[in-house]
Amino acid sequence: MATAMQHDEEDDVSLNEPVVMDSIENQETSDVLPASRKVLLVIKKAKIRTNYDDKDDKSAGNVKRLSVQYAVGDDGTDGEGKNKNRRLFIDYVIAFTSGDGVRESDWWKTKARGPVKELFTALGIGLNPPPPIDQDFLESLEDREIFADIIVKERQQKTDQVNEKGKPIYKNTGEQENDLRNHRKVGDHEA
Fold first, then answer.
1. Facing residues of 172 across strands?
2. Interatomic CA distance for residues 188 and 168, integer angstroms
3. How many angstroms separate the CA atoms of 7 and 66, rounded?
4. What integer pLDDT is reported at residue 140 of this predicted model?
5. Beta sheet of 62-72, edge-to-edge order
6. How far apart are CA 74 and CA 87, in angstroms?
7. pTM higher than 0.85, yes or no?
8. Residue 37 and residue 24: Cα distance in Å, rounded?
């Protein structure tokens, strides 16, 4: 993580001698947390993000996501405080439109919003129908706690290719990212 400049430091605007660094090959660039079970997570912030199929045509299809920033609780990822207060950023699909029919598969109809259903259930939020997600709702999530399993998965990226059904093909990028599974109420936690 980059650090802020201290008051007693100078900004080297005119560099007369080059700065020589030793090898940085072994430096970590990932903020991915290790896979961990039953981790206490505190919601720090929530917002809505919308991804449009065509950024120039907002009437085309889109996916709306509940984007949640979590902090790892006091017990950390290992039960002894490791990774306490580390942040996780998780997106949950909450609504979508098909545009040209790209989101009409069974996955979109029956599974895309499964993770947000788990989250709402863990928070005691009604499902039929869920409350409107507005600024008041987003603010009401702050400082609420859940337990969840942190998983590590390979990040995928959309390619320009399509499969035989005309659907986009995704490929693994070689990078890892975190996701959450098995969201549970804090009162349901088993020691």
1. 156
2. 39
3. 39
4. 97
5. 87-97, 62-72, 36-52, 145-162, 168-184
6. 13
7. no
8. 32
